């Protein structure tokens, strides 16, 4: 489907209360441990979150261990070629099974040597033959719901949640011409951040701050917004060329086949609640946030290029300016957000009036509050 037909840009997308009356969320929205606890229970353990790229786990036996808000996770490609996700804990006494990434023939617990096949089935449990009623089948690894979209892996702890396609809604209409499925991940970092998870995503979805916080890097930016269907939001920073590098001609050509709207700038999307995809004319990158506590988060930043670009003989040299930009801007954001978190802890902090350029901030706050119990929302506004 054509993004031009289904999604038309607007100066901003506003929701109630009306512009002029809308204010930022109360400070305790970002500082109260009880509110964070409710967010984990009612949002993070019930919605889809980004967990990496399928090209990172391409061959049978490839695995990658990650941390999530629901605990340690193991992504593994089976001998049958199927990509699966499991809780990365032994069924005996819950030791971590594998760490980092690599390739394995089977999965062996480092504590008592229980071992599992790549499909999660328990293959061996030393010393358990003598245990009455013990059987292998019920003691395989615990699966975690996994679905993919165009090479992006998403996980969900709630088996009853709507499927990923329903969650993404019409996002593929806007981003389809970037051809995510043809991309290859080439770079990534993780940054520990002393701030609430929502601040990272709010910051990522507005350009109000860029001319100040990023004066030495990307500079001031202007954006348009898109009305969307599904659990996602989008703005587009207007620029005739890629903004994925700093002050130089982009080293890579535009992605072949980009539609007219995609050629006008860089999309910054939020797949609620914690995943941003940034889509420039020549590449994509992401910001994925893992909430740790009310004032601690982990920010994962990664980047992809079209496969033909990664086959250039000088690819590493050409890609280096992108990596520099992605890391530098992320660190600038982290610095200001940690200051914001400290400010929100002030006994005198109060909600402030929102600008029209905060349209996505308001939308994000309303999305979160709509999924919390009434008593939690009342606590936010006490």
UniProtKB/TrEMBL annotation:
Which positions fall inside the Rieske domain?
Answer: 48-155
- One term of GO molecular function: iron ion binding
Q: Does the keyword Iron apply?
A: yes
Gene3D superfamilies, per the entry: Naphthalene 1,2-dioxygenase Alpha Subunit, Chain A, domain 1, Rieske [2Fe-2S] iron-sulphur domain
Which UniProt key words apply to this protein? 2Fe-2S, Dioxygenase, Iron, Iron-sulfur, Metal-binding, NAD, Oxidoreductase
Q: Which InterPro entries match?
A: ARHD_Rieske_2Fe_2S, Rieske_2Fe-2S, Rieske_2Fe-2S_sf, Ring_hydroxy_dOase_asu_C_dom, Rng_hydr_dOase-A
Q: Which cofactor does it need?
A: Fe cation
* Keyword flag Signal: no
Domain of life where this protein originates: Bacteria
Q: Which PANTHER family match?
A: CHOLINE MONOOXYGENASE, CHLOROPLASTIC
Q: What name does the UniProt record give this protein?
A: Phenylpropionate dioxygenase, large terminal subunit
- Please tell me the species this chain comes from: Pseudoxanthobacter soli DSM 19599
